[in-house]
Amino acid sequence: MTRKHNGGAHLDEVNKLIIEQLQQDGRRSYAAIGKEVGLSEAAVRQRVQRLVDSGVMQVVAVTDPLELGFARQAMIGVRTSGPIEGIADELGKLDEVDYIVITAGSYDLLVEVVAESDEALLNLISSKIRAIEGVVSTETFMYLHLHKQTYAWGVR
């Protein structure tokens, strides 16, 4: 999923409260959320659907790929030449890529990947990522242990 910044779409206080409730527990029922925010279950359902449809949020199961049988997870710093967005689009087409950010600093892009084996990671880097036109160099940071992962930063 390619994400576009929504330009600061206006979120009213109720939408912010709904988002915070789902950040704490993505399985919380619409009825329970409604009690917390002062809306009916149906109204919460409609608001959540609008938030999802607009790209403001996703409701997903967050997992640790290493615990699910993937042997390797890594962050790859990518240096590019030419338009960065086109390279990011090409990287986004790769199944192994789950996260891409355009950055300032030593790398133009940071790309998080999961691979089934060391051989699969090597193939991904050598045959797929480095083969994309405009990729100048990569540096791979292997994940040894997922120490903290949270998405409950609230809303502003």
From TrEMBL:
SMART domains assigned to the protein according to its UniProt record, in alphabetical order: HTH_ASNC
One GO MF term attached to the UniProt entry: sequence-specific DNA binding
Keywords, alphabetical: DNA-binding, Transcription, Transcription regulation
Pfam families linked to this entry: AsnC_trans_reg, HTH_AsnC-type
Residues annotated as domain HTH asnC-type: 11-71
UniProt cross-references to InterPro entries, sorted A to Z: AsnC-type_HTH_dom (IPR000485), Dimeric_a/b-barrel (IPR011008), HTH-Siroheme_Decarb (IPR050684), Tscrpt_reg_AsnC-like (IPR019888), Tscrpt_reg_AsnC/Lrp_C (IPR019887), Tscrpt_reg_HTH_AsnC-type_CS (IPR019885), WH-like_DNA-bd_sf (IPR036388), WH_DNA-bd_sf (IPR036390)
Protein name: Lrp/AsnC family transcriptional regulator for asnA, asnC and gidA
Natural source organism: Nocardioides panzhihuensis
Lineage: Bacteria, Bacillati, Actinomycetota, Actinomycetes, Propionibacteriales
